[in-house]
Specification:
Layout lengths: L8 H11 L15 H15 L9 H16 L22 H23 L3 E2 L3 E2 L2 H18 L3
Antiparallel strand pairs: 1-2
Length: 152
């Protein structure tokens, strides 16, 4: 079964509707991040995709990502709770909830606006060129995983 299409207005609206149930005081069901840190964590994926955050994984990391981790990230299978994350996704410092929420909303809307054609064949620094379906799965799964973490 295909995941919801993030390039579709209905999926964007549903995502933002779920987001409205998140507050600065929302507590996670698992993990260590608070709500603001979780939103900042989600924003990292968009920042990398849009070149706002530069990463330069070495040859061995890229090889390991392509051979062993890529399919876990871009498949339709949900992430397990308390999954390990790459160092650039770790948000240890406090963040401003409203600022991170605003950035997240802008990222979701920009991604919908850009559409699948923008992402078709777009390179990910760690995994190489991805299809628009792989980008869709990466973004949707990541969001859904953390929204479920916070019960939204």
């Amino acid at each position: 079964m295909a995941l919801p299409n993030i390039f579709n207005t209905a999926t964007t609206e549903e995502t933002l509707k779920r987001l409205e149930n998140l507050t600065p005081n929302s507590q996670p069901k698992w993990g260590k991040m608070n709500a603001a840190q979780m939103l900042a964590h989600l924003n990292v994926a968009y920042d990398i995709a849009y070149g706002k955050t530069k990463t330069n994984p070495g040859f061995m990391i890229k090889l390991m990502m392509k051979l062993f981790i890529k399919n876990v990230i871009v498949s339709e299978k949900p992430y397990p709770q308390n999954s390990r994350t790459a160092p650039e996704f770790v948000i240890a410092n406090e963040r401003d909830f409203e600022k991170e929420k605003t950035l997240y909303i802008a990222n979701v809307k920009e991604t919908e606006k850009n559409g699948a054609s923008y992402f078709e064949g777009k390179s990910n620094p760690s995994m190489g060129a991805l299809t628009s379906t792989e980008w869709n799965n990466l973004f949707y799964k990541h969001t859904n995983h953390h929204f479920q973490q916070f019960g939204i």
